Amino acid sequence: MPAELDIYSVIGFVGTACIIGAYFYLTAVEKPNPLILHGTNLTGAALLTVSLIVHTNWPSLVLEGFWAAIAIWGLWKAFKARDART
After folding, report:
1. Which strand (E) or helix (H) includes residue 19?
2. Please, is 67 exposed, middle or buried when counting C-beta atoms within 10 Å of its C-beta (0-12, 13-18, 19+)?
3. In a domain, 2, yes or no
4. Would the CA dihedral through 30, 33, 34, 40 be positive or negative?
C-alpha cells in the first residue's frame, strides 16, 4: 500500500524539479546566465535539504550540502564578475 505524500516530500519534489530544470537550462541555452543557473540549483538544494531533514537520508543530505556549496561559490563568482564589468 503506497504511502501518501506529505508536505516535506512535495517540497523535495519541487527541489528536484529545480535541479533538473537548472541542468536542462544549462544544456539547452548557448550562454546560460550563471545567476539563474546557480540560483536555481541553490534553491533546489535548499528545498531538498528541508525534505531530507524530515526524511533523513544521510548520503543524500551530504550531497545536497556539497550541491549548495558549489551553487553558492558559482553565485559568488557570478556577482564578482558582474561587479568587475560595472
Report:
1. helix 7-28
2. buried
3. no
4. negative
Contact 25, 32 (CB under 8 A): yes
Return the residue matching grid coordinates 550563471: 34
Position of cell 524530515? Answer: 54
Q: Which domain holds residue 36?
A: 7-85
Pull the grid cell for residue 9: 516530500
Segment 40-60, tens digit of pLDDT: 999 999 999 999 999 999 999
pTM, two decimal places: 0.90
Asked, for residue 78, whether it belongs to a domain, the answer is: yes
Number of domains forming the structure of the chain = 1
Residue 1 counted as domain residue: no
Q: How far apart are CA 55 and CA 70, in angstroms?
A: 23
* Rounded Cα distance, 45 and 66, in Å: 9
Of 7, 4, 3, which Cα lies nearest the Cα of 51? 7
